[in-house]
Fold this protein.
Amino acid sequence: MATKRKRPLNLVVTAGPTREYIDPVRYLSNESSGKMGFAIATEAVKRGHKVTLIAGPVHLETPAGVNRVDVISARDMLAAMKTAFRDGDGLIMAAAVADYRPARKLKGKWKKDPSKKGGGVDLPLVENPDLLATVGARKGSRCIMGFALETSNGMRNALGKMQRKNADFIALNGASALNANTTSVTLIGRDGSTQEMLEKSKKYVARRLVMAVEGWRAHA
Ligand code: CTP
């Protein structure tokens, strides 16, 4: 008997860091390479899904078959996510979004203040929007997966993030995942389920995460 072919999903995947400019040549950012998000996009296309990959500034080639949207800041990423998720079935939020940005971007280069020689300077920051929570609040029956990078109290913090951001899954990992080719992830489902992936390639983890979104739809 022929197996029933599943409808392809329309997935939005975010990847990489965001960059928050202080002046035309300086910015705040983080160590994210984008590898996890790009691996997710690659595996999702291989599994027959339509993928919009929203990427912060990274040095990675666009995976074949993926619709890539490049962004710089957290606020750019949010705008791109809102547009792409209008027709989306699922969002996998692998980007490492900067929590804060400079309160204002200077038009010209920030010059040293000779009167403060040897002293400290202040850089006022304001909080960026929480992208996942913003989209999560209006997700309806669609599937949302977030990541949690934790250095302590991982499970408790991840569950808190799942709640606050209205996520259906949280992929919990440690700082060793940053810029690496392998990663250890605990995938936590809203139903309390957990899947452990220890020191696996990002390709392997990516496939399992996409499969979790596929499976979630089956129960929706
Ligand atoms: N995230 C987001 N918008 C932000 C910060 C984070 O959408 N402004 C997303 C990340 O992409 C990730 C999830 O939220 O999928 C958790 O990110 P993380 O940095 O672990 O948590 P934070 O909410 O930033 O909390 P904290 O930094 O206090 O751990």
User: Anything to note?
Assistant: The chain is about 25% helix and 30% strand.
